[in-house]
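Structure ticket #2291
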Amino acid sequence: MEHGQLTSDVRRWAAAITLAGLVAAAVALPAPAFAKDPKPGKKLCEVSDEALGELSGLVATDNGYAAIGDGSDGNVTTVDVIALDDNCASTGQNISGQVEPSDPEDLAVDGKGNYWVADTGDNDGARPSIALHKVTPDAQVSTYRFTYPDNAVDCEALLMQRDGTPIFATKELGVSNLYAPEGELDPNGAEAPLKKVGSVKIKATKTKGGPEEINGIPLGDAPSRFVTGGAVSPDGKKAVLRTYTDAYEWKVEGSDVAKSIKDGKPAITPLPEEPQGEAITYTTDGKKFVTGSEIGSGTAPALWSYTPAKAASGSDKKKDDEAAPEKSFLDTIIDTLGPNGILWAVAAVGVIGLIMVIIGGRVIWRARRNKANAHSLRESLDKDQQDGYERPRYRDQDDGFGGGKLFEPVSGHRQDGYQDDYYDEPRSGSVYGGHDDPRSGNVYGGHDDPRSGNVYGGGRPGRDRRDDEPNSGTVYGGRY
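Resolution: structure written out below.
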């Protein structure tokens, strides 16, 4: 991966880091740590060759080192294996194979002096196949192509078994899946299927190193959870995978590297303060690690030497190496969900949020529509109201969204703000026991009135009452 480049690969795991980081921050758990403070390795030398500004693959040789640069800029037309002496100076004895690689990431060497270049980088997860280039000492190139059984994935580590079988270790957040060819290598370049032969979970550590942020996105301890390189010892008895910050070493049982990694317990050697460490190899005697880092902020690519931590038995899962970090709550989340599960969780949160926005908008729209309908209904009733009819009025002008009751009839007294045409003085006296009024007296017990007398037994209308005559209504039994 190019230094500082915000790739889609980084965007994918940055989202997972963000979600997991929020959960971890909520419970305020400390990050896992080693029993002892990590000690920096011995700096051997700085690499001055511009072709190795993005140092990605490294092997130790009898005369020094052989290295390759990351060719992911798309301008590489050859596979260049660059020879360095013990002081990291270029010897000029480079081997250039005529092939156009896509993204070389790691380097291995076999017992015959052949170099194997892992052309496996895939930051976008879009390559239909990956390639392994065999470069002989006389610059002859054979290319082998492979396809994953599931999805394309970024891969930056190559482990060559003693029998010549390549093991590819992927670069994924918190896990590295191991793949091997299903059959013999085909030198004709035909694509061969890969099969998954194991996986290893990578826990977070407190070892400092690797990129701290990319385009303003803080990475936290994520650099400690990505596998960026690998190597097998010259005698084939040990294998190591590195992250940006630490090296994980296993003892190899028999010659099966993948099974030893899958079933074994690694010893962890911190590799602190490397700006962007992506290369690792064994010394020719197999006793030490030599690591390489790409160019950093104000620093040149360099090589470091480390003494490996004591390796555990390949199949002993009961022993806990003191260098192994404790499992944190964040580890549990990522181990349980996996990177894809975390990304699905992020997507689910977004979808739920969108659904809530849609539902909320729908509720508000319906509430406003109901309110508008209520106003329209009131206006319609006002227009249709006949003289002498008083329509019910409503205590609560609310539309129902805030808890008020729509269409709640109350008393017939006039409220302020309503037109007097509809809410005139009370027209009382038109029922039993009604108020005296010149226009009343039309039912039982009604007040006397010249205009009354319209029911059974009523007096004759229009006759004036004598002063000595008791007040009477114009109903049954009334006087006239």
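Closing remark: Helices lie at 8-27, 257-263, 329-384.
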